[in-house]
Amino acid sequence: MAQEDVFKKIVSHCKEYGFVFPSSDIYDGLGAVYDYGQNGVELKNNIKEYWWKSMVLLHENIVGIDSAIFMHPTIWKASGHVDAFNDPLIDNRDSKKRYRADVLIEDQMAKYDEKIEKEVAKARKRFGESFDEAQYMATSPRVLEIKQKRDALHTRYADAMQGPDLDALKQIIIDEEIVDPISGTKNWTDVRQFNLMFSTEMGASADSSSKIYLRPETAQGIFVNYLNVQKTGRMKVPFGIAQIGKAFRNEIVARQFIFRMREFEQMEMQFFVKPGTELDWFPKWKATRMAWHQALGFGEENYRFHDHDKLAHYANAATDIEFRMPFGFKEVEGIHSRTNFDLSQHEKFSGRSIKYFDPQTNESYTPYVIETSIGVDRMFLSIMCHSYEEEKLENGETRTVLRLPAALAPVKLAVMPLVKKDGLPEKAREIIDSLKFHFNCQYDEKDTIGKRYRRQDAIGTPYCVTVDYDSLKDNTVTLRFRDTMEQERVSISELNNIIEDKVSIASLLKKLQK
């Protein structure tokens, strides 16, 4: 099945099973805004809990805050967002649609990558076990030709984005003969800059109101509070501040479901270090964050680092952790060495000293910062994409299953009475009452056991328990495992011991301590 078709099925599955709904659905939706349903919010909360605890529980020198969405407008002037938070946009005159020029070019590079992967896949099928992929990549004339085109495009694109050189970006689009996906034409306008911040008015009347912005990132809330946290928490450099919160960007190219939205959630940690040590800390945080992702068990081959060709004005090193989505490798987390730009700017614009006094060296300095920033929604999507599977069974049937990491699954255990009579529902309720304080349980009595199993598979429930007539006699139940569909008879009193450790966030955190 084509990856595009797989992605469409995942989007449909998210709505059908209560994970993600289009916002304002009964009013035909609102572009690039989504609501999380009853299962989606549980999965999302579990992702956030996994991240939060990995930061503040596993690191004694990292604490959390929750800053306001509305902030003093001068903050965004100091940070550079008012003047420099822009995307290069281009319109197609025929479709009247607007696109990000950089995204069009990146998609073109991805097409070259896909062509190379197809050539490799065909060769692998042709040569079988004797296939040497590295040798093939280095000697195949077709692969080398495609790679040369891709590398040449990459070089031109990196150079154009340094400015950015808007004329050069348009010329790349023309030279690569990139067409509008809707009209199919190459009738493009010039490229121009567009600021992404949402603005609004604060005040009781038009005369007294002032223009403020919905924050486009959560990092600045950390920077303006860093000294408050340092002093009240008696923190010593190096130390970090973590935050989870909403951010808002007026994205023109908002697409690929929840991958790029106008309202989204970030999990960010700013790590304050002594100047001159930031490039020592940078690789350490790269390794720490990659380990966090790989602890989910999705396979190392599905992750990669992508170093930035163009560094932001505040950075001296930057990389992305990319995950293999159905539409290619895409960024899920950014790791940046932000130097001391933000703190220095806020000190300049506020007129207040926010330097750190180091008691060991008896000197004051502005700390440098290592940032880790991960999108909750992109993380959610990457998990859904990897977990979704249509499995062919031995009897010829197909089951749709979400192989979610057990600790992240919305429901950990479904308890099902075999029939809705003879005391079986009451026994099932008794089991839920004893376990619901430990993890999320769900009672299900509608339809046949087989249909109920399929329903739980579709939402990723790792364990199901069936209560039958023998349960009333010997206090045992049938425990079914989602991934293997194997069943075993266990004592009701043992259920918590069998399940709890496997479905707790602690089970993931322990992998990070190895």
UniProtKB/TrEMBL annotation:
Cell compartment(s), UniProt: Cytoplasm
Keywords assigned by UniProt, alphabetized: Aminoacyl-tRNA synthetase, ATP-binding, Cytoplasm, Ligase, Nucleotide-binding, Protein biosynthesis
Listed InterPro entries: aa-tRNA-synt_IIb, aa-tRNA-synth_II, aa-tRNA-synth_II/BPL/LPL, Anticodon-bd, Anticodon-bd_dom_sf, Gly-tRNA_synthase/POLG2, Gly_tRNA_ligase_bac, GlyRS-like_core
Subunit structure: Homodimer.
One GO MF term attached to the UniProt entry: glycine-tRNA ligase activity
Top-level taxon of the source organism: Bacteria
Database matches in PROSITE patterns: AA_TRNA_LIGASE_II (PS50862)
Enzyme nomenclature, EC number: 6.1.1.14
Homology family: Belongs to the class-II aminoacyl-tRNA synthetase family.
Protein name: Glycine--tRNA ligase
Pfam families with a match to the protein in the record: HGTP_anticodon, tRNA-synt_2b
Cross-referenced NCBIfam families: glyS_dimeric, PRK04173.1
